[in-house]
């Protein structure tokens, strides 16, 4: 089964073609980041308009350049939520319309299910059941995953998402959006141990997170340095490192707890922050000690992309699920409400 995937939930237009027999055949990504950069964040209306401008030409170009004829497409998967409603509607309307024109089924995919399944695109994919840490710009969640669509939320951030905290700290450090990779690069120059920041909510039971206090801690430290006339480039790098280590350690502690409490032996990480090398290394050390295994997608499939949507949609269309002739788009959408993809042996 060959599926065209369309991702337009935020500021990236992602297009991909996934074939259940041959794997990922083609993918393309257009990021609007330069357009939004001057505003310091994503402007929803501009995002929608840019998806309108890019999505259809990208689909045409991708299919032409890979010699893929529309008659070989068996279904269309588009991101139906959660995300910016106007941006979602562009991909949803386009996906639904193409499906109607090509007389194939369409399915609206949950964006976080897309992220969660992205490690399945790799050569050594995880097998169910596993614990998933979703760490992106809008989400920080620990999820018990028994099969596709069999999700139970174990814990989540009570305030800022991990990626959001990276982006806000980047702003304080004078770095541009999206800040995660830039904070990580600056932290490379940091002096280990010069600053130690708190690991929020780790000294009490539970699997929830909170990152907004840590962000305030960073702001106060920068203010103190500035007041003392000591806010040098080196000091900024030292702060970036202390922040990154605090986030990573916090995530490691909670993932260890989730593995212990669930008895599961596989951990997958997904979403933009799962591209972070310090996080991958910290979790890699932790799972080794607990005889568990860690899985993640290649960096370009950690952040938003069309491949994860094509993959997730393909699994659901293969199981016989599809949308009626309606355009599905939801700004908010609870992942636990998704139907199971097929009966799993785990019950
Ligand atoms: P959501 O998926 O929750 O709707 P989103 O789609 O905006 O949010 P993603 O595209 O998955 O989020 O990820 C983007 C986020 O990942 C940004 O906050 C960015 O700063 C962060 N990020 C990307 N690379 C890194 C990195 N190497 N280290 C830390 N953070 C990173
Ligand atoms: Mg983005
Ligand atoms: Fe995302």
In short:
The chain has helices at 33-37, 44-65, 85-102, 111-117, 162-172, 180-187, 212-227, 233-262, 277-289, 306-318, and strands at residues 2-7, 12-19, 23-31, 75-81, 106-110, 130-135, 140-147, 150-156, 266-270, 293-296. It is α/β, with parallel strands linked by helices and 347 residues long. Helix 5 (162-172) packs parallel to helix 7, helix 6 crosses helix 8 (233-262) and helix 8 runs parallel beside helix 9.
**Into which percentage range does the β-strand content fall?**
15-25%
Number of H- or I-type helical stretches? 10
Let me know the number of strands: 10
User: Which structural class matches the secondary elements?
Assistant: alpha/beta
Spatial strand sequence of the major β-sheet: 3-2-1-4-5
Bound ligands, named by name, code or SMILES: adenosine-5'-triphosphate, magnesium ion, fe (iii) ion
Oligomer: single chain
Q: How would you spell out the order of helices and strands?
A: EEEHHEHEHEEEHHHHEHEH
Q: Quick check: average pLDDT?
A: 96
GO molecular function, one term: iron ion binding
Domain Gcp-like: 24-311
Protein name: tRNA N6-adenosine threonylcarbamoyltransferase
Catalytic activity: L-threonylcarbamoyladenylate + adenosine(37) in tRNA = N(6)-L-threonylcarbamoyladenosine(37) in tRNA + AMP + H(+)
Task: Describe how the helices and strands are arranged.
Blueprint (H helix, E strand, L loop, with lengths): L1 E6 L4 E8 L3 E9 L1 H5 L6 H22 L9 E7 L3 H18 L3 E5 H7 L12 E6 L4 E8 L2 E7 L5 H11 L7 H8 L24 H16 L5 H30 L3 E5 L6 H13 L3 E4 L9 H13 L29
Parallel strand pairs: 1-4, 4-5, 6-9, 9-10
Antiparallel strand pairs: 1-2, 2-3, 6-7, 7-8
Helix pairs in contact: 2-3, 4-10, 5-7, 5-8, 6-8, 7-8, 8-9
Bound molecules: adenosine-5'-triphosphate, magnesium ion and fe (iii) ion.
The site of adenosine-5'-triphosphate (ATP) has 24 residues, from α4, α5 and α6.
